[in-house]
Amino acid sequence: MDYLTTDDTIAAIASAGGSAVRGVIRMSGPDVTQILIRTFSCDDPTVDIGTLTKPTRMPGSIKLSSDHMLPGTMLFWPTDRSYTRQRSAEFHTFGSPALLSLALTRLGKAGARMALPGEFTLRAFLSGRMDLTQAEAVLAVIDSDSRQKLDTALEQLSGGLAGPLAETRQQLISVLAELEAGLDFVEEDIEFISNDQIIGQLQAALNQVRSVTGQINSRGDTQSTFKAALVGLPNAGKSSLINALSGEQKSIVTNIPGTTTDRVTAQLQIDGIEIELSDTAGIEEVGSDERTQENSTADIMATALLLQKESIANADLVLLCIPPEEPSLEELQLLEEKIGWLKQNNQPILVITTKSDLLPLTSAPPKARRLDQISTHRPISVSSNTGAGLDMLKFEIANLANEQQSCESSVVGSTLTRTRASLINVEEAIAAALHAGQNQIGEEVIAAEIRQALDELGQIVGAIYTDDILDLVFGRFCIGK
Fold it and tell me: How far is residue 197's CA from residue 403's CA, in Å, rounded to a whole number?
């Protein structure tokens, strides 16, 4: 995924899927003005789109073809005073998926590229509109299913975490600059900052970081075991997945459906959270002819299904594995019956499309894709064979475990998952620098520890980032956000 391309123009449907009264198409990039000139007809003939210099609301129509127009309202930001800090536009019209798709296709023919998941928020991040913690808060706002989660996400979006961390980072940069200036002129005996000033500023920075980590630690007992159960049809890739996640040969893997009849468990630790992962028997029925056979396979399967039901009932999260192959009508019915039971028990469900190396998620058959709609969180596509998607899956499991911790905190779960280790490293590095200053070990040592703290802080706020970090943060967004 080429995340760092920002010099083209992207477009996507930004409103929720399905029919609605209103729908929204969003565009951002350098060619927005020219695309509007080619595709949009303003109701006011005196408006010249090419000369607009301030945000403007324009009733009008998109030209779907020479004979068909789609009426609506265009909101146009011709300057950098937009969400992405690029020229941007939003077309508000009827919420018909077919009409929105036609309008998006028209914009595409005029020069816009289909946006990737999270690409609008990514551009806001890359332009400096927000840092990574605020980008994560945007997703948390979208996904909030309770007032507490929404309040937490809004507080973080408004700078509840970014503000203190930015202040700490600037404080450390200032101390480091003074130290390095003094080291450059050490032979001339010029003091740019006194040792007492160094100690005072480092102590203030350490207190600030400890305050943030205190918010994180308030999320409850992160050492309690979080239980996740793998559920799905026989041969859905559950055994391969538990082996891939645990890094051990926990479960037998064959092409023969129904190999797993015992309950297989693996203990994982993700972001300091203990995860108990259970591989259960495949969902299937015991035939009436089999029930009459004493000590038959039916008895074994009945026991396996009993263990499966017990694992699911005790699980904090159900990982519903769906292979890319077309399920039979009988299999589909069994899955939907199981899903109905899960919903009645209010079980959190995360749909996993397995074996993604065999068939991409976008090519999944209609019946399997229909099952994706029951996920209480966005489906994830993985391949136990290639390892694709496994890091994203681990991150999401840890994120959901964090979300289930009862707490009063201004840190959303995904940020907590991504940053906890870095914050610990920041605290340790500042404490080491403070110790070096208090014991006059040497300014070179203090400077080295501050640089380490700045590197870790940079990863938290996104001043330093890698493609893997961007994948974790923005790969969880939907298209259009």
Answer: 40
